[in-house]
Amino acid sequence: MKALTAATAGLALASALSLLTGFTFADAWSAEDKAVLASLSLDRLPPTPRDASNAFADIPAAAALGKRLFTDTRFSRNQAVSCATCHAADRQFQDGLPVGKGVGSGSRRTMPIAGAAHGAWFFWDGRKDSLWSQALGPLEDGVEHGSNRTRIAALLMANYRSDFEALFGAMPDLSGLPADAGPNGTVAERAAWQSMPAHRRQDVNRVFANLGKVIAAYERTLSLGESRFDRYARAVVAGDSAGQAVLSAAEVRGLRLFIGPGQCATCHNGPLFTDQHFHNTGVPPRDAARPDPGRTAATDRVGRDEFNCLGDYSDAPKSACQELRFMASGDAASVGAFKTPGLRNVAQRAPYMHAGQFASLDEVIAHYVASPTAALGHSELAHERSGSAHRQPIRLTATQARDLAAFLQTLSGPIVEAPRPD
């Protein structure tokens, strides 16, 4: 509320001065506002946190192998889908579709992956607790890659054995295994999996987990580059008036709304413009007859996941799995809640929300102003009759909504792949 109050006062002051003098005082920011702007800048982004569950996360050879696997379509059932199908490098590592399309159609929007390693939970509902474990999910999903565990292990053995063994040591003997077997496949695949001795399932699981670890190593090399907003924030903090010309007057007004009356920064905060938490904001479900439960259905799932931080295939000591050990579950607020997406490059990633419900940023802003009742659970947004003690209704004029959308355009920047040593 302090940030909101200060920003509102700053906006009023700037507007009054502009009316009186005819000039736009782009740098009429309070000390508190400047601190907020600095906190949103990429300059404040810490190094990618270490993933204790993946001992190979920062090994260049692992990232190089992971990059090759990321684009290999042979790991899908129809030999036509790879990770890059939905996470396309020329589309911000997403696909621009309302819901992902692999060998079939999914029910949620593809999430961007640049900078994802800064989070603790993955997918819209946080059903995975590491980037490497997340990378495994689509491979066995019936509408994404649609493959199975023994087929994937055999493909690795046939096509990447030397590179794999250089990192992980000798591959296990995979001879005599069913060609198609896995715990998450068809009825026949699941039966074949159960017919395998436990130690052979573990061998396959180890190979499968290591596949996820090298793909994660590659994904960790993808980061978000500087935007116009970052240059503006740096100029404001430094008192560089000329440098502030990088944003237009409308974009600056939108920024003031973003950290103030628009209440966007309540959840979209920090250098990646996300609090990395889960919120129900009353976004209408894509299928009204079957609203998506979001986070509430994911906590039990990640707790039971054999590839979680506490599992046999994690490289972390149990003491390093604090997020999972102390994960909140059974919380009413998690019903219908989804992860706050980062807003960097958001203008290049339409459509929006967890199932692509809104085609434009204008529609997103209109949703927050309308603040509809949630189809499942309770929306955190306030409206005129809610009497919320924590939120105020978001009131924006049409001009303010356009200014806010203009500001969001300033968050675009390049996606940078870290160079690998020769």
Topology at a glance:
Elements: H1 2-21, H2 31-40, H3 60-70, H4 83-86, H5 131-140, H6 149-168, H7 187-195, H8 198-219, E1 222-224, H9 228-238, H10 249-259, E2 278-279, H11 299-304, H12 322-325, E3 338-339, H13 361-370, H14 398-409, E4 415-417
Antiparallel strand pairs: 1-4, 2-3
Helix pairs in contact: 1-10, 2-9, 3-8, 5-8, 6-8, 10-14, 13-14
Describe this protein with a few key phrases.
two-stranded antiparallel sheet; 2% strand; disordered N terminus; 14 helices; mainly alpha; 422 residues
Describe the structure.
The chain has 422 residues and is mainly alpha-helical. 38% of the residues lie in helices and 2% in strands. It has helices at residues 2-21, 31-40, 60-70, 83-86, 131-140, 149-168, 187-195, 198-219, 228-238, 249-259, 299-304, 322-325, 361-370, 398-409; strands spanning 222-224, 278-279, 338-339, 415-417. It has a two-stranded antiparallel ribbon. Helix 3 (60-70) packs across helix 8, helix 10 (249-259) packs across helix 14 (398-409) and helix 13 packs across helix 14. The chain is globular, with a radius of gyration of 23 Å. Residues 1-25 have low confidence and may be disordered.
